[in-house]
C-alpha cells in the first residue's frame, strides 16, 4: 500500500496547474440566501449553468425562506430547479447540505436552538422540495459544534464535512486525519466525515482560506503523499457570484453524498474524538455590537424555552389551545437572529436594515410572543403563580416589584407563611418553593408591623465593607476600586476563594487603553461603596468607580441560603475610548496579526482564585469541554483557539471550584499564570477594516458560583439552567400547585417540552450523569411512551408503569446524550 501511494505521489508531481486539478474531486455549490445574499434572478442563473454544464453537480446551503421569494419572483426558474432537484439519488446533481433555518454558527446558542435550526429548516425546505433528502451536513462558514454527530444522525443525516476552505474569516476546524474520519461526539455518536485534512494548510497571504479552496497542485500532492487516494477540495460560492463551475472544466464535481458514499475510503476512517476546542474561532469578542446581539439572542432564547414549556403545561392542565402559530413565529425569528452574519458582519446592510437592526426586530418578536404566553402583561395582584420550568426543585427568593402595602404576609397554597420583606425600592421579596416543571401559588396580604431583623453587614474601621450571609463572608475594599479582597465560602469548610497574593484584584476591571498608551485598572482610583439593599433576604452592594477615566457601577447581590452571587456591571463611556492592542497603522485583510485577535489587551473582569493546579471546563451546546489549552491567548490568524464562553466556565482544583456565568456569548480568559475572567470591551479596527466603537453604556450581567468538587459534582449545569430560566411570576387563577414531571437523577435536564396534537414531546438531556438507567415520572397517564428520532421516526417503545395517576418511565441516556420521548394521548388529572 505504501509503495502504491508513493508511486501515485510521484506521478502526480509530473502534472501541474490545471491539468493536475482535472483528475480530482471538488465540492461546488452555493451559500447564502434571502437575508445574506441572493440577488434577483439568481435562480434562473443557477438553472442556466446546470443546463450548460451537464457534468456539474452542486451542493446548496441556501436559507430556506429564499425559496418563498423565488417561487413568486422567478416561477419558471423555480419550477425548473424543482425538476432538477427531484432526483435525490446518490447519483443526483443537487444536494442540500445545510438546511439550517438561520445558518447559525451553532456554537453561539443553546443545544435546543441547534435542534430547531434543523427541524424548522427541513420543514420549510420540504414545502418547496418535497423529495429533499438530507444526507450530508456541510457549511461554507465554520458552522460547527461538537454535539453535531448525535443531532445529525437523529435527523437522518449519514455524513458530514468539517471543511470551510474559502470562508475562514470567523475560524476553521483543527487539521486532523485523512480521506474520511469517524467524527465522534461527546455522547459517543459517530458519523463519517471529511475533515480539514492534517495536510490541509492555511493559505499563505490569506486570512480566509485553506489550501483546499481550489484544488491546487500543492494541496493535491500533500494529500496523496499522506495516503489520501481520492482528495477533494471545496468552495460553496456566495450566491450572487457568477462563475458557474468554480474550477470550470478542471475538476470532477460531486455532491458530498456521492463522494463520501461511493468514492471516498470510509473503511479505514480514523476515529476523531472531536472536542469543542477543535472548533477554532476568531470573532471580534468584546465588541459592543456583538455584546448587544448576543444579549438579545440569549434573552429571547431563554424566555422562549420557558414560554413553550408553560404553554405545554397550560395546554394539559388548563386545556388552553396550543399556540402553534405563535410559537412557530417566535422560533423562526429567534433562529434568524442567530444567523452567522449577525456575528461576522453585524454592520452590513442599508441604514435601518443592518444585521443589528434585524436582530432587534427578530428578538423583539420572540419576546413579544413569549411574554404573551407567560402572561407578562397581566397584573399579578395579591395572588400569584410562581413558575419553575426546569427539571429541579427550587427554593429561591423572588421579587415582586411595586409593593404598595405595609408589612407583608405571604402564604403558600398550604396556608403556611413564608419569609417576606419589603425592600428599599418598595419591591417585595419572599422565599418561594416550587416543584420541577410546575408552579406554586402564593398570596400576599398586609400584617401587623414587626421589628425589622438585623443583618450582619458592616463597615470596618479601616473603611472596608464586610458582607455576611448564611453561605458567605465577603470583604470589599473601596480604596482599591471596590475589589473583593476576601470571599469565604462557609459551605466549603470556610474556604477562602480569593487568591489574596495575586497581583490582580478579584472582580477587578483591567485593560489596555491604546489612546492613552497605558494599562488602566479599576484599582487605580478609590471607589464609593454603599449598601443599596440590606435585609435578611439579600444584600446589594453598589460600587461606583472609574476605569481609565470612565465611570462604572458594579452591583453585587448576595442572598441568604443562595450559592449564586450575582454581578451587574455598567460602564458609562465618555467619548470613544480605544481599548485593546493598538491597531496597525494600515489595515490589510491578509495580515495574520490583528489587534482584535488579542484578548490579553482587551478590557476584562478578572477573578484570581486560590486554587492550585487549576483545571478549566466550559459548556457548549449539549456538551462540556475539559480544556486542554495552556492559555486562551493568541494574536494571529494561524494560531486561533476556542476561547468561547457560552453559558459558563468553571475552574477547579478537584476539591473546590468556582463557576463563572454570563448573560451573553463572549470569550473567557485563563492560563497557567493568568486568572479566570471574561472579555468586557474591545474598540478599534477589526474585520474588513471596520471601526468597532461604543455607542452607549456597556451593561453586563454575570455571576459566580463557588462549589465543591469539579463542575459535574458541583451541580454547575443545573445552576446554569436555573440562571437561564429564573422563577417567573404569573397571575394565579386558582390555588392549586402542580408539577408535571420529575427526574430521579437531578443531573438530567428538560430543555424542551411541547405538544404535538394530543401527544406530549419531552426532550431529555443527560447534562452530567452516568449511563445508568433512571426514572422519569409524569403526573398523568398516556397510552404509550415512545422513544423517537429528531426527524419523528419511532425508535423504541418504552415500558411504562402506572401508579396513582402517574406514569413512570425508565430509560438510560449516555452522558451528554439527548433523547426525545413521545407520550401518546396524554391525560392530566388536576
From TrEMBL:
Kindly give the Gene3D superfamilies that the UniProt entry links to this protein.
Glycoside hydrolase 38, N terminal domain, Glycoside hydrolase family 38, central domain, Golgi alpha-mannosidase II, Golgi alpha-mannosidase II, domain 4
Name all Glycosyl hydrolase family 38 C-terminal domain ranges. Answer: 467-665
What SUPFAM superfamilies does the database record attribute to this sequence? Answer: Families 57/38 glycoside transferase middle domain, Galactose mutarotase-like, Glycoside hydrolase/deacetylase
Query: Taking every annotated instance into account, which residue ranges of this chain make up the domain Glycoside hydrolase family 38 N-terminal?
Result: 66-198
Q: Does the keyword Signal apply?
A: yes
Report any Pfam family annotated for this entry. Answer: Glyco_hydro_38N
Among the GO biological process terms of this entry, one is: mannose metabolic process
Q: Name one GO molecular function term.
A: carbohydrate binding
User: Which key words tag this protein in UniProt?
Assistant: Glycosidase, Hydrolase, Metal-binding, Signal
Signal peptide annotation: 1-21
- Keyword Nucleus carried by entry: no
Protein family according to the UniProt entry: Belongs to the glycosyl hydrolase 38 family.
PANTHER family, from UniProt?
ALPHA-MANNOSIDASE 2C1
State the name under which the record lists this protein. Glycosyl hydrolase
What species is given as this protein's source? Chitinophaga pinensis
List the top taxonomic levels of the source: Bacteria, Pseudomonadati, Bacteroidota, Chitinophagia, Chitinophagales
